[in-house]
Specification:
By secondary structure, the protein is an alpha/beta fold. It is built from eleven helices and seven strands.
Length: 321
Amino acid sequence: MDSTELRIAAVVPCHNEEAAVAKVVADLKAAVPGIVVYVYDNLSTDRTAECAREAGAIVRYENTKGKGNVVRRAFADIEADVYVMIDGDDTYEASAAPLMIKTLLDGPYDHVLGVRKQDEDTNAYRSGHETGNKVLNGVVGKVFGENVEDMLSGFRVFSRRFVKSFPAVSREFEIETELTVHSLHLRVPQTAVQVGFRDRPAGSESKLRTYRDGTKILALILGLARHERPVAFYGLFGTLAWLVSLILTVPIVVEFYNTHEVARFPTLFFAFTLMLLGSLAWTAGMILDGIRRSRHEAARLVYLRYSAAGVNDDVAAGDRR
């Protein structure tokens, strides 16, 4: 199927982006003929909605604060073959969208990540953001066993089957992390494309808070590790409990062997309790791992209900028959 025959939708989350959103909409329309741009106004107090509408976007409203809530709503409401997600602050080069869409279709891939390449004459990354991004990329790579180039990028292109199998649990800026982890645990075909990244326009203010949002993202990663790697997560605590129990028990056993008396009964009781807790932790991890496998199988079945990007669902259904 030719890209001109596809339904291509852009999702642009916005909160007080009056100074930038019109240019983002215009750039997307110029770069991708026929694209339908949906601007989701997330409790803006300025003229974001009016500016977006005047630029030719379809404006919708999400009245629960947070980028994650916007993405959750947009992915549920919008029907398309290809989805482009880009921030409304005009920091990403929208002109990269055609290459990202072509890459998605040629793969075919389900997720194309826009890896930010900062302009040489700008300092678009705020202090601490680049370092924090690299640290979080490394943490996710260690937890999930796959390298991530730019986990926090807000410029991505998705297939329909990716979008419709994505649960979107996060509420705020953790949504990028959740998108990345979803692609990793579902093992969808994906790739990355470098995109230009520049300073915000004058009058536009970043909504990111380095330490607050970084802490939330790290907490999300730990939570996802608990759900996606339960044997390793609970096994770590179980093994530590066993080791402490062993360290406490050995001197008591040696003393009993020499004196035939248990002089530190409370310590022995505590050591046995730790041994039991360690065993329970390992058991919980193994049970939750079985549940995880069931969840992944269910998500995979939902994913497989849709055809690959650029393939007509009716044709794909006929091929399966």
